[in-house]
């Protein structure tokens, strides 16, 4: 099975006699080393292919000792090395195949989920741009930007600068406008995005208040993971609704 780094209380005891355990038991076993872990986090790691528990005929997850060990490795590499989930999965899969592979170089905390679905590229979290630069990048006019801001779709900081992520937002607004969707039509999307962001913020708030700086950094990773899932769910729901309406 996987080569396991040292550390972590209780791992390997989940089913030392071969028995499978529930997700609640897994949570208790992991919390000694990872107090911030939740059942939702374990389910998310399953969705991302990091662990594959068995299922009972009634659909309940059942985890082996190897599953618990792998979850510990995943959480440890996220916490200690700031590695994105894709890199962690590839590294552990290589170890499972018996390959000798070095641990990938750690990323900076804000790069935790760079490349994951729904993640914001790190350069968009640091770079700030002026109004003229935003207008040029979005190929928009001053009147258009003013209208977008009036509907709350974009906003500048107190110094008048924008986060570089505003470029992507502005381009999408402009493209939707060319398709016939005016800024007033997009207010519902913005409101939904604000509600989703508020929900994510509420869920990661306990991690952000933690004294351990690694745990606080992990809060950013968790927020981006949840944001990615939210984006995917939103797209799936829109597609499902359109299938109903167009058929």
From TrEMBL:
This is DNA-binding transcriptional MerR regulator. Pfam families: MerR_1 (PF13411). GO terms for molecular function: DNA binding; DNA-binding transcription factor activity. The lineage of its organism: Bacteria, Bacillati, Actinomycetota, Actinomycetes, Kitasatosporales. The keyword DNA-binding applies. Residues 37-94 form the HTH merR-type domain. It comes from Streptomyces zagrosensis. Transmembrane segments: none annotated. Keywords: DNA-binding.
């Amino acid at each position: 099975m996987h080569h396991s780094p040292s550390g972590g209380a209780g791992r390997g005891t989940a089913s030392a006699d071969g028995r499978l355990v529930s997700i609640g038991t897994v949570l208790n076993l992991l919390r000694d080393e990872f107090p911030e872990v939740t059942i939702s986090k374990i389910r998310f790691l399953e969705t991302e292919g990091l662990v594959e528990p068995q299922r009972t005929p009634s659909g309940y997850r059942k985890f082996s000792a190897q599953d618990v060990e792998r979850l510990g490795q995943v959480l440890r590499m996220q916490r200690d090395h700031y590695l994105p989930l894709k890199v962690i999965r590839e590294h552990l899969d290589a170890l499972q195949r018996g390959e000798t592979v070095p641990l990938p170089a750690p990323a900076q905390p804000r790069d935790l989920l760079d490349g994951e679905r729904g993640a914001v590229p790190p350069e968009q979290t640091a770079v700030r741009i002026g109004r003229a630069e935003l207008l040029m990048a979005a190929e928009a006019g001053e009147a258009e930007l003013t209208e977008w801001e009036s509907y709350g779709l974009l906003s500048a900081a107190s110094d008048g600068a924008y986060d570089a992520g505003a470029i992507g937002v502005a381009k999408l607004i402009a493209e939707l406008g060319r398709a016939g969707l005016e800024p007033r039509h997009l207010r519902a999307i913005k409101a939904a995005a604000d509600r989703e962001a508020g929900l994510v913020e509420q869920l990661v708030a306990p991690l952000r208040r933690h004294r351990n700086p690694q745990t606080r950094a992990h809060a950013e990773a968790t927020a981006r993971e949840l944001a990615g899932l939210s984006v995917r769910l939103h797209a799936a729901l829109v597609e499902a609704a359109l299938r109903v309406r167009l058929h």
